[in-house]
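tool=predict chain=A
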Amino acid sequence: MPGPTRGFLGRRRERDPRLPPGQYDVGRDWPVLTAEPTPRIAPETWSITVDGRVENPTTWTWDEAHLLPRSEYRGDIHCVTTWSKFDTWFAGVSVDTLLEATRPTADAHFVVATSKTGYTTNLPLADVTGGKAWVVWEYDGGPLPVEHGGPVRLLVPHLYFWKSAKWVTRLTLLQRDQPGFWEQNGYHDRGDPWREQRYQGD
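tool=predict ok
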């Protein structure tokens, strides 16, 4: 017996090659997901500290951070909850710039990002260097909205977005890996969307 005609089945939609496995295009939307209450942080009270395994631990105020060379990211972001958002535009300072000033020691291999709320997430140092990560305070040409981590968040767009800690205030370099909030609760230590590293064991 012949199968259904092509017209009955309709045309197959081509999957966008920018979508990692298991993800869908969220379009213009940007879901708000947090592990803790949203803090209200006045920019003039915010600062970012880089410490731990560095030769020159340094803290930058809001004004001092804005004097550093501006850097932008234009591209896609991916959340472990399966949405992806294309063509985002963030601006701030590259993590490379902060590390150039603080000079990591030879035994620095990991980073723990800490938020104003106490939230933490861990990353290999290699995932925040070489133009892969930013500390950002602008989104789409305006201030980063508070519900998305404003005034300042970490941005590590090549990993699932829980690694891009909202309301970031500290980057601590470590010799050994130290799991953060979600990593202690079963999430993958690295979180590569293209490998679907959502949970421990993936």
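The two ends are 43 Å apart (CA to CA). The chain has one domain: 47-195.
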